[in-house]
What we know:
- The structure is a single chain.
- The protein is α/β, with parallel strands linked by helices.
- The chain has two domains: 7-254, TIM Barrel (Alpha-Beta Barrel), CATH 3.20.20.70; 258-332, Orthogonal Bundle (Non-ribosomal Peptide Synthetase Peptidyl Carrier Protein, Chain A), CATH 1.10.1200.
- The N and C termini lie far apart (48 Å).
- The chain is globular.
- It contains 17 helices and ten strands.
- The strands form two sheets. Strands 3-4-5-6-7-8-9-10 form an eight-stranded parallel β-barrel, surrounded by six helices. It has a two-stranded antiparallel ribbon with strand order 1-2.
- The structure holds flavin mononucleotide (FMN).
- Residues 21-26, 47-48, 77, 104, 106-107, 146, 176, 207-210, 230-233, 339, 346, 352, 355 line the site of flavin mononucleotide.
Amino acid sequence: xxxxxxxxxxxxxxxxxxxxxxxxxxxxxxxxxxxxxxxxxxxxxxxxxxxxxxxxxxxxxxxxxxxxxxxxxxxxxxxxxxxxxxxxxxxxxxxxxxxxxxxxxxxxxxxxxxxxxxxxxxxxxxxxxxxxxxxxxxxxxxxxxxxxxxxxxxxxxxxxxxxxxxxxxxxxxxxxxxxxxxxxxxxxxxxxxxxxxxxxxxxxxxxxxxxxxxxxxxxxxxxxxxxxxxxxxxxxxxxxxxxxxxxxxxxxxxxxxxxxxxxxxxxxxxxxxxxxxxxxxxxxxxxxxxxxxxxxxxxxxxxxxxxxxxxxxxxxxxxxxxxxxxxxxxxxxxxxxxxxxxxxxxxxxxxxxxxxxxxxxxx
Length: 363
Ligand SMILES: Cc1cc2nc3c(=O)[nH]c(=O)nc-3n(C[C@H](O)[C@H](O)[C@H](O)COP(=O)(O)O)c2cc1C
């Protein structure tokens, strides 16, 4: 039998070598636990958290940092500019019992970039280095960075950045294969990710446009990356990590039945309902239902009905009716997921569009 890929980030063992990408408005504790229950993902990363909010005692920001032991190994991602604030935030994270602190050097949002954080650090390498060195001095847990390939097509510098990260004591670098200016358009450039892998000895995690398990396996083979990170593909298909492990071990990938998909929505509701009031809960379920039903026969009609529902009861009436009728008609549960389609839906969704629109989440 083939072996499952693993990697070591400092003292943290990540097995399998598959990572749930940080996603603002999505990878909160409920979603992370849902993924963890369904699949053996190796590492999960929180939504990005503002160091300003964290170090100034903002309650909402501190709530975003909360996690349960079953989510571990867990990496908490922070964003900011000032090295002292970043180091203070890293200390708070270490005290919380998180396994890894990750620094966001990829967020394209205007508000984050204006403050000097996120992807703007790719244009200010002395500051990027200062931040990493200052955090490194203050915490013992592994420190990692998530970057993009560069600011724009004329300044692709991921290899240079990765060397700085390695030289400053960073324990891993994750690269989303797009430039800041690309946002989420075009295709992720895995050639740059492969070049980074060639250039440094610390673990390199590749990210971008992996929407099925077979693609994850191909990215390992083509680029030699130490781990593959998956974002949007895991929202549409939370079993993607489980399926990738099946392929690594030489098995046919698990295919969730329609009943399993139905159950996941019910479970997500269970996990969410203790966390938020009914109105927010309705919004989250509408969002999730939208992602899950892309590519399913009759999915558009269900989304429309769910979107116009006024209460949790109404939402579940629609969902239950839909799945009952699909199961009765034996409709195949294909997930035909297109990240571009996701992007358009995401842009319209007020619950998840903060990251893309540039609203500062968590401050
Ligand atoms: C809704 C959404 C929110 C995101 N939030 C974050 C974030 O907080 N921090 C971060 O580093 N990247 C964030 N990203 C980028 C993802 O982590 C990932 O790099 C990107 O989506 C490409 O991977 P994918 O094609 O597998 O989705 C976000 C992406 C999406 C779609």
